Every structure is written in C-alpha cells, then in structure tokens.
Amino acid sequence: MRLALRRGVLLLVIGGALSACTAPAVSLPLSEPAAAVVDGHTISMKAYQARLEVSRYRDPFSGIKEAMPSPTPAQRLESFTIEQLVREEIVRQEAEKRRVGISDHAVQSRIDALKAKAGPTSFNAALNRNGFTSDSFRAYQRALLTEVALLQTMAKDRAGSAAKELNAGDAFATVAARWSDDSGTSARGGDAGWLRPAEIPEPALATAVQSLAAGGVTGIIPTNRGYVIATVLERRTDQLHLATILVLAPAVDLFSPQGTPPWFTKFIDDRAATLRQAGRIELKVGNRGSG
Question: Can you give the pTM of this predicted structure?
C-alpha cells in the first residue's frame, strides 16, 4: 500500500516538473493567403499570381478601344484574372456535384499529346511566350478538361431529355426547336436538307442514317461536336433528306469559349449570380477586392 502511494506521489512530482518546463516552440504551417473564396473554397494567391502572369503575356484587352474610361490596365487585368479563376472554380464545383472528375493521368496525357504535336522545343517556347510555368499550364489544362467534361455530361442529359420527348410522341420539329444548338437548322425544325451519306461529316451519324427508313429516328449519337439525334424525312436513291437535333458538346481539341453553347454559359453565369447574391463569393484582389 505504501509502495503504491509513493509511486503515485512520484508520478505527480514528475508530472508537475515536466509541466513547469517551457515547451519548445512548434512552427505551425500558416494558411496560404487567399485571392478569393467561392462558396467556401479558396482560390490561393499563388494560383492567382501564376494566372495573372499569363494574363499579362496574353492581354485580352490589348488593342480594344473603350467607349467609357476603365480602371488602369493593371487593375483591369487583375479583375479579369480573378473573375476567370472564380468561373473555373464554379465549374469545378458543379462538376464535383455530378461526380465528374479529371485524373492526374488525364491531365498528363493531354499535355503529352500537345507536346508531341508541337515538338518539345516549340512546346516549351510556347509556354514561355504565354507566361506559363509547367505548374500553371497543368492547372490551366485541368480547368479546361473539367469544363469540357462538365459540358459533355450536361449535354448528354439534354440530349436524353430530347430523346424522351420524341419517344413520348412529340413532333421532331418541335423538339429540335427546343433543344438543338444548331442555329442554322433549329429554326427550321432541324431540317438539314438533302445530303448524300458521304457528305455527312460525322461518320457515326452517316452510318446510323444510311439504312434508316423514312420517318425513322436514330438514338443519341456521340460525335466530335456533341450529341446528335436524326430523322430521315425522305429518301432518294443516293440522297437523304435529314433533320437533326444537335446538342453541342465539342471534344477538347474543338472547344473554345466562343463556341460554348449559350445554355451552358447561362447556367454558369446564373450560378455565379446566385452565389454573389448570397455573399458566397469573396474577392480579395481586383476592382472588387475587399482587402
């Protein structure tokens, strides 16, 4: 009993002595400064500075005359850059909600393909010429691949909605007017005119309609431009009178911001507006920076 008591007292003494000692300073990692916060997700200052360097080399406002005075060129580029990154973050979040992700392997494969096409020397020169480092170019390509993947996922859903309406008995022309992104044909109910199978640029579409009877409708056909549904209105010996529904979802090599379908742009813009209205976008840089 006394031995146990003595051990208890000894432990208390040792514990007190240790607590009285000054603990060595522990260096805790500091959080990286944020350039913006989008719905709880941080855009780092490092990512912003890297993209700003690209904006300086590829000034999108160069040579554009202004109808009204604007902020200084530096402020204008800062605002452009952070808004671009905010948009990319919104796209990333929307992709994540739909379980759309881009693997490191996919990013590296994309970079390797670009390098092989241009040649290593030309490729590296192009990076330097446009203000990219290897890391910032990788981030840029990941954002691009994410946007294309999200667009393709949403486009496939839209094509599915069009197919569902057709299966329910809606007229092809009505469905085309509602869902088709082809401005040249949607106003005409999707009417693409008379074509020979060899004149149809998408091989998968040409194959699908070649033996399709008049009045028949294809399923959803993936192409490099997006998803297509077609019907044969009339047939001749060597020609088809086609109507099509095209939901744009271009492959990454055909993708451009100018070619983004309006419905996708509106979706991202509306999401950004909702987040801003709710105070869920906080900018630390650019004209709207809050310090």
Answer: 0.82
